[in-house]
Amino acid sequence: MYDPRENALGYTKEEEELRMKAKDWAEQDAVRQMRDERRLREREEQLKQQWDNTEEGRLFQQLANSFAACKRLLKRNAEAQTQAQQLGGKNYDVYSKLIENLDHANRAPRCCYMKMSGELCRAPKMKGQEYCCMHLAMMAAKEKEDFTLPPLDDVNAVQAAITRGARGLLNGTLDEKRAMRLAYFLQLAVTNVGRVNFEPVEEEA
User: Fold this and answer.
1) Which of 25, 43, 98, 196 is 20 to 30 Å from 68 at the Cα level?
2) How confident is the model at residue 202 (pLDDT cuts 50, 70, 90)?
3) Based on the domain organization, do 119 and 150 belong to the same domain?
């Protein structure tokens, strides 16, 4: 996604200043990691905001608020739980089921996504998966944005690949290290494209 704060390589003004001051490759790589971590944090926040604005997100937020309010009430007034058990009927059954599910969730295997702080996510992971629901959605969104190239079989395709590479740097689907490697292979393609012929050789009659 286009971000007006970023230059063609995806750096903000502050990050670009640090990159230009870098004394060696290691310092440049540290700035690159800083950029990638910032972009990932912003992507996570964007996904969260998108979820919060959906009907599902709003309903789950209401449920979470109501559940938290019930817990506070029962903590302040021990008799309220007895009353809820006796008089609450199905409404109390919903609350007790949520408590039971929360207890199961606390014992469930945890999401192994590594945060920028170096800590694991620790949210319950989805069954049969390595990540929780939110980080699975984030990874799926990232996969949809994977950088791809057309076959480099003529000069037009090479030019299209150059354009796609520049766009990849702008939208974050191609990082600087991969872009440098891509540039090398595109140079090879420019050199070789006039020397190869993929058409089958016609046999003389």
Assistant:
1) 43
2) low
3) no
